[in-house]
TrEMBL record:
<feature type="transmembrane region" description="Helical">
    <location>
        <begin position="6"/>
        <end position="30"/>
    </location>
</feature>
<dbReference type="InterPro" id="IPR029787">
    <property type="entry name" value="Nucleotide_cyclase"/>
</dbReference>
<feature type="transmembrane region" description="Helical">
    <location>
        <begin position="65"/>
        <end position="84"/>
    </location>
</feature>
<dbReference type="Pfam" id="PF00990">
    <property type="entry name" value="GGDEF"/>
</dbReference>
<keyword id="KW-1133">Transmembrane helix</keyword>
<dbReference type="InterPro" id="IPR000160">
    <property type="entry name" value="GGDEF_dom"/>
</dbReference>
<keyword id="KW-0812">Transmembrane</keyword>
<keyword id="KW-0472">Membrane</keyword>
<feature type="transmembrane region" description="Helical">
    <location>
        <begin position="96"/>
        <end position="114"/>
    </location>
</feature>
<dbReference type="InterPro" id="IPR052163">
    <property type="entry name" value="DGC-Regulatory_Protein"/>
</dbReference>
<feature type="transmembrane region" description="Helical">
    <location>
        <begin position="120"/>
        <end position="140"/>
    </location>
</feature>
<dbReference type="InterPro" id="IPR043128">
    <property type="entry name" value="Rev_trsase/Diguanyl_cyclase"/>
</dbReference>
<protein>
    <submittedName>
        <fullName>GGDEF domain-containing protein</fullName>
    </submittedName>
</protein>
<feature type="domain" description="GGDEF">
    <location>
        <begin position="179"/>
        <end position="312"/>
    </location>
</feature>
Length: 315
């Protein structure tokens, strides 16, 4: 196994210190981004360089325990990069960067077991750290681009494009695991009256606040998206039976129909909701949308016949 004397003989002490510094710098930047965005990808991008820095630190020390700890840290870092390859949203470039970083970490851990390869070990970890930093910058830039292209700017939920992608992905998972999936369509009753009475700014505020309430009423793995205007789609990725779906609908309705205040104006939103379940109502997204839209129309007709003690807008 390599020793500190071997490292110094190859003149790699400076390279080792630089590698540790590079890995720590990437880790600090990644941790900052992870604290801001709190996504699985940023957390993994944060953990990988910390493991590389620890692996390099342990690897250049004397003794069997530090060496094996270095190998373990590098293998953990390689595993994190492999998971990032599988979940990378930015296409082949990001997958190549993470794949190469994983290979470098695995090769570095193997080189620790061979005497005389100290310089190669340090160089591999340095390269892995640099690739990790490039992958982090690439993923951050791509995430910002995705935010602009796939997030509705008013409500900050998924737009129609992202919603379609997530729905198709969820349907594929449901087919693979034979698990249920529920699609809800929701729109606001007499939304035009809110626009005419309170103004467009108040109507936009009502939509934004209502979207946040929908997100709060659902579980973390469910999806809320704005299709257009005052119509939203909610994807219950671990949907249960009809009884559980009815409970979720009532919970959403109660949350959204709380009064909304905007610049001294109280608004009382009312919503109609229709549901469709995979596979009972269809196995493809258009079929589920059609089924949910039909039930949405029935719910709207039923609620139109109900007395409304409150107007949509009260000054």
């Amino acid at each position: 196994m390599p020793s500190s004397e071997t490292l110094f003989a190859f003149g790699s002490e400076t390279l080792g210190v630089a590698g540790i510094g590079a890995a720590v710098a990437v880790a600090v930047i990644a941790s900052t981004q992870a604290a801001i965005k709190k996504t699985r990808q940023t957390l993994m991008h944060s953990g990988a360089p910390w493991m590389q820095a620890a692996g390099l630190t342990f690897g250049v020390q004397l003794g069997n325990w530090p060496t094996w700890l270095g190998i373990a840290c590098l293998l953990v870092s390689a595993g994190l990069h492999v998971f990032l390859v599988r979940g990378a949203p930015a296409g082949p470039q990001l997958r190549w960067l993470n794949g190469t970083a994983a290979a470098c970490c695995a090769a570095a851990s193997a080189s620790l077991l061979v005497p005389g390869l100290s310089l190669l070990f340090v160089a591999l970890v340095v390269v892995a750290s640099l690739l990790c930093g490039i992958a982090l910058l690439w993923a951050s830039h791509h995430a910002d681009t995705l935010d602009v292209a796939r997030i509705d700017p008013l409500t900050l939920v998924a737009n129609r494009r992202l919603l379609d992608e997530l729905a198709e992905r969820a349907l594929a998972a449901a087919r693979r695991t034979q698990s249920p999936l529920t699609l809800l369509l929701l729109d606001f009753d007499d939304f035009r009256r809110v626009n005419e009475t309170a103004g467009h700014d108040a109507a936009d505020a009502m939509l934004a606040i209502s979207a946040r309430r929908m997100c709060d009423a659902l579980r973390g793995h469910d999806v809320v998206g704005r299709i257009d205007g005052d119509r939203f789609a909610l994807l219950l990725t671990h949907g249960g039976g009809l009884e559980q779906t009815d409970q979720v609908i009532e919970r959403i309705r109660k949350a959204v129909e709380l009064p909304v205040m905007h610049e001294g104006t109280a608004m009382f939103p009312r919503v109609s909701i229709g549901s469709a379940q995979y596979p009972a109502d269809g196995e493809h997204l258009p079929d589920l949308i059609l089924g949910a839209d039909g039930r949405l129309g029935k719910d709207k007709s039923r609620r139109r016949a109900m007395p409304d003690p409150m107007h949509a807008v009260v000054g």
